[in-house]
Amino acid sequence: MPPELPPELTPEPATAPPAAGASAEAPAAAPGSLVRMLEVLDQFAPDQPVIRVDDLQARLGYTKSTAYRYVKALCDAGLLAQASQGRYSLGPRIVELERLMRIADPLLQAGEAVLPDLAAEMPNSMVLLCSLYRDKVLCVHREGPEAIEAGGDRISILRARGLPLPLFQGAASLAILASLPAPRIRALFMQRQAEMVAAGLGADWPAVRQRLAGIRRDGQVTTVGRFNRHLAAVSVPVRSRDGAQIAGSLTRIMPAETFPAQDAAWLVQRLQAGASEVSARLA
Fold it and tell me: How many helices and strands in the chain, by DSSP H and E?
């Protein structure tokens, strides 16, 4: 149900018609307004599925009338839905778009064709296909058990489709990060140096560059106990069909206790073969 503006809010005055000889095109600020409106969607997260209009005002610096206008437009488009008075959740259009993505996303389709066989090669493991969106790494598809038996326990792997992963931590993310163009990596370092240092990538730019160059040279990333001391992960990059761009990463998660007994070269080889098959299936 589309939200109604509070009674105290009056409609903004209509835009005056252009003077004779003036251009009738939309003002230059219009694209910026659209971007600012779409920033509303960025405020939703797994730990905050419902947002108050007052929070949008505080976080994004909107006026009250602007916040309600943006929310109403997003509700009209089905991208938001009113959960209660002044509180909104993602709308049904998101579900519809997700369905379309499942049908049309080339990376997902390739993953659904390739990952089941890879996962079956090691029953007590999970295989993930991830991609990069802006500066986030997202899980696109996963195959394998819901939990891995390790350390005498069953460890649930919270890597559902659409779940963002840290960009600077974990094998799945580092395989993508190391494959990005050098100027983009440099820009990320300039913007988020503290995060890279905290993640152990290096204390300065030469150290970070050397670490990522080593990953590119090896063609794989291996981590043990990074997010859970009982788990290990091996990841390789997935490139576009022409090899010109990084499309994502392919990762196997397994018990750390059995990892030393595995043939490391075989693990990497099988993932690289899977990555090549995924790439070949991309449109």
Answer: 9, 11
- Burial class from Cβ neighbours inside 10 Å (0-12, 13-18, 19+) for residue 251 reads buried
Task: Return all residues near 228 (Cβ < 8 A) that are at least 6 apart.
Answer: 155
d(CA 208, CA 26): 45
Contact 2, 72 (CB under 8 A): yes
Say how far apart CA 237 and CA 176 lie, in whole Å. 6
Return the structure tokens found at 174: 């580092």
Instruction: State which amino acid sits at residue 99.
Output: R
Distance of CA 246 to the CA centre of its chain: 14
Work out whether the CA dihedral 113, 117, 120, 124 comes out positive or negative: negative
Helix, strand, or coil (residue 172): helix
Query: Could you report the per-residue pLDDT of 69-126, keeping only the tens digit for each?
Result: 999 999 999 999 999 888 999 999 988 888 888 888 899 999 999 999 999 999 999 9
